[in-house]
Amino acid sequence: MKNLILFLGVVTAFSSAWAADLTGTWKAEFDTQIGVQKYTYTLKQDGKIVTGKASADIAGEKREVELKEGKIANDTVSFVEMLSFQGNEIKITYTGKIAENEIKFTREVGEFAKEELVAKREASTSAPARTADLPTLKDTYKDHFKIGVAINRTMALNAAVRADNVNRTREQVEKDIALAKSQFNQIAPENDLKWQLVHPREGADGYDFAPADAYVKFGEDNKMLIIGHTLVWHSQTPNWVFAGTIPAPEAPAPAAGTAPAAGKSGRGFGYNGPRASREELLQRMRDHIHTVVGRYKGKVKVWDVVNEAIADNGTEILRNTLWLQIIGPDFIAKAFEYAHEADPDAILRYNDYGLENPAKRQKCIALIKSLLEQHVPVTAIGSQTHVNVASPDFAGEDLTLTELATLGLPIHITELDVNVARAGQTNTGADVASNAATTQGGLIDEANQRLATQYANLFRAFLKHRDSVKVITFWGVNDGVSWRAAGRPLLFDANDEPKPAFDAVIAEAKKTVAAK
Q1: What residues are labeled active site?
Q2: Strand 469-474 to 411-419 pairing
Q3: DSSP string spanning 23-78?
Q4: Fewer C-beta within 10 Å: the chain N or C terminus?
Q5: What does residue 514 show for φ and ψ, rounded to 5 degrees?
Q6: What is the DSSP string of 69-112?
Q7: pLDDT tens digits, one per residue of 383-408
Q8: Which of these, 315, 233, 324, 314, lies nearest to 275 by C-alpha position?
């Protein structure tokens, strides 16, 4: 019986390690018939699954026990351990309530025993957390521009739900929210105002406003500038938007000896069925924009009206999308017209990536000049600025902003991040499909220092052009929720701790003040 007690003591100690975020070192004590036993173990959490091993020294015997089939549901942890002892199978059931950095467990060993115990997280021996006493980005830059962040559904709802790019525990979500509130004075929605999310089904009853409503309320409650992203885009738009009765044109035959790219249609679009007419698609666009913008009139102050309409390559200015094919090039002007009708006071942006590329930037300038000449109500330029540590350098970003400023419109840096992955050092795009490839290969050498240097370059350029640059939005609150998480592209790590890049950004503002 002594051996059974010793073994159960180790298992119990290990089970006690569950918590909202379990990664790290934990300690627990369990009072058995042979005295108090002490255990130390290292755990790693992946979503709602926890792995790890507990080490215990019990009466001179060292043992390790592996946790299996563990589950977290809200604030409750449970799992079952089957113990083989002297030819018998004993079912051990553990149920624990998570509270901050401890768990109160009830352990039931078959019909033999029912015990209560508490497990506590061991304080980290690494450098102390800096988050609480940090200078804030929003205050440091208050005389220059708004500093914002894209938030995901978990933050807007304050819930550990699986959404966007994240799988955060409730404790992590609350830390993310606290960081967003303390550091930023503007927000953008990562996904929940995109057509596919907010209007997934056809018709007036096809909207799902609950997540978007929560997002807007988050901004209102925290007195933040609220941005809407995005109204018209070739991606993340449901098929019904383009569907109709007009047969789709035949795809051109591939050249001799070639074949269409694997996984793609001949036209390169997700929807290849019968199409809507120009009039039908314009009406759907107008209804959508009037409904969404109208719902948040006076609350959402800035809208990305048209997103990524410019072609990356070739001589054509516009990307060859279904919006362009069905409506024609004036789909952009119509979208801005409808948005202005819905909220005449809102700032209306054209938003695109890769404007650091001279050829694409000139296309953007030509497009916006044409729209302004037609008196289309474009009132700001959005430069996404998904860049990397290799480019652009300060001179490159300086030139980008100088040329965009010739349009005479406010410039918003709308989706800022800096990719540190090896595979992403020749890419400033924002194509979702290619994102995995651009965040592979591990991190470059001296990643944190090079990230800090690049952020310093960028903010030095932003500050030089502060008469034109009015908003800067980071695309995610930390590396753990970033769409490019493997590229570690943001100022805060996955635990919401500041990286050297944060200090570099703060330092650039201080240099500007000192130079006055």
Answers
A1: 308, 415
A2: parallel
A3: -EEEEEEEEETTEEEEEEEEEEEETTEEEEEEEEEETTEEEEEE--S-EEETTEEE
A4: C
A5: -65, -30
A6: S-EEETTEEEEEEEEEETTEEEEEEEEEEEETTEEEEEEEETTT
A7: 999 999 999 999 999 999 999 999 99
A8: 324
pLDDT at residue 118, rounded to an integer: 79
pLDDT tens per residue across span 219-266: 999 999 999 999 999 999 999 999 999 999 886 554 444 344 333 333
The answer to whether 285 touches 339, Cβ cutoff 8 Å, is no
Interior/surface letters 478-516, b for 16+ CB within 10 angstroms, e for the rest: bbbbbbbbbbbbbbbebbbbbbbbbbbbbbbbeebeeee
Residue 426 neighbours by CB under 8 Å, 6+ apart: 388, 390, 391
End-to-end CA distance of the chain: 78
Asked whether the beta carbons of 423 and 439 are under 8 A apart, the reply is yes
Pairing of strands 243-246, 71-73: unpaired
Alpha helices in 296-420 (DSSP H): 322-327, 331-342, 358-373, 394-405
Residues in a beta bridge with 322: none
H/E segment holding residue 19: none
Q: Is the pLDDT of residue 64 over 80?
A: no
Give dist(CA 254, CA 423) in Å, integer: 30
